[in-house]
Amino acid sequence: MVNPKPLKTINPITNQVLAEFEHHSESYVQSALERAEDRYASWKKRDYKFRASLFQDLAGLLRDRKEELAQLMAIEMGKVQAEGIAEIRKCATVCEYYAEQAELILKDEPLKPEKGQAFISYEPLGVVLAVMPWNFPFWQVFRFAAPTLMAGNTAILKHASNVPQCAKAIEGLFADAGFLPGVFQTLLVGSDRVESLINDDRIRAVTLTGSEYAGSKVAEAAGRNIKPSLLELGGSDPFIVLEDADIDKTARIAAKARMINCGQSCIAAKRFIVHVKVYDQFMKRFTAFMSSYTIGDPLEVGVKCGPMASVNLMHELDEQVTDAKQFGAQIVLGGQPSPLGGAFYQPTVISGITKDMRVYHEELFGPVALVFKVKDQDEAITLANDSKFGLGGSVWTSDKQKGLDVARSIETGAVFINEMTASQAALPFGGTKMSGYGRELSEPGIKAFTNQKTIYIA
User: Which one of 266, 305, 411, 440 is the catalytic residue?
Assistant: First the structure.
């Protein structure tokens, strides 16, 4: 067998290789699976108070190390320092949320049979495999790990290949917080090893956040092995601006919703659907706010947008924009790679989008916004739903009832009214259509990887 190429940390500013890591050997992988299964036997018997104490300590470590962890994200995938610190704080919050709520959420749930007594007991499944992406390299992992481990499972992480240092740092955090070996482990392996992991009898369930292609492969393998799976895939979230919205506030938050993590977020607003009566006003303000996102070194104070995660990803985005230009789209702002070089791309606003353009149908994973003009609320809903994706969305209006009516008509896993869509520990998170299935976070998130056992007493 030919040894795979090392996993690399490549600085997206310079495209220089900063570090290389050898893949874990097959013997290491087998030992890790054995440790995870062995530890599960004792971990599932630990009471909630014991597990909660460890997660409280872990939250404290995250806050103490937030600057250094944010720097790690900056050099591996280009996240600006302020956003990186905010991400680490969010990880601490999800640890505390489940430390406080897990026992209450997973308590026995009484049922009402015709005779006798019955209840649902929520019990762990075993070793859960997590296949995680690079764009939020800490948050994506912790929003899986906190509920899954608090429920009594153990975890194996296969992180994205371009963030090996983040992956190793996460495993180190669990160890430093006092979690015993085998409760949470990182495997440095390529995506070609995922199927064999799912095939292993010691893996009892799998969750993936990533592309449609990766999701379909994981779902196929999990289905073949009859194992539970949870998929959070791409998104092309609609941001609907009705004629009675507060345009200045809406345009400001619209830019933030598009530019978070340099636009590299599944749940970022991507399609801005604006009522004709306020279109010109919105476009003027929105373009101004988008142009205010200064790009540069993510570790420099004042920089609001770093590079994209890699030069290849930047070129893929530029190909989508170039295709739109060729079919007649209007480039209102930006529309090309930045003169800074590397993986930098200019904040971009495009209008005049038609169905024969790739951007109409595909997810744009970078700092590019599509703006559509619609004549009324019904056209806005139709356009919002004319997508294979269904992750999130938002509606902006001064009429609460109108906002609710539109929200109920949008085919997504979540709709926020007068607020940008974001994941929160207390809110279920997930999508429909090609955006995946299942829910993370909140009560559904911790129950996702439990055996919901019915117990009946005659």
Answer: 266
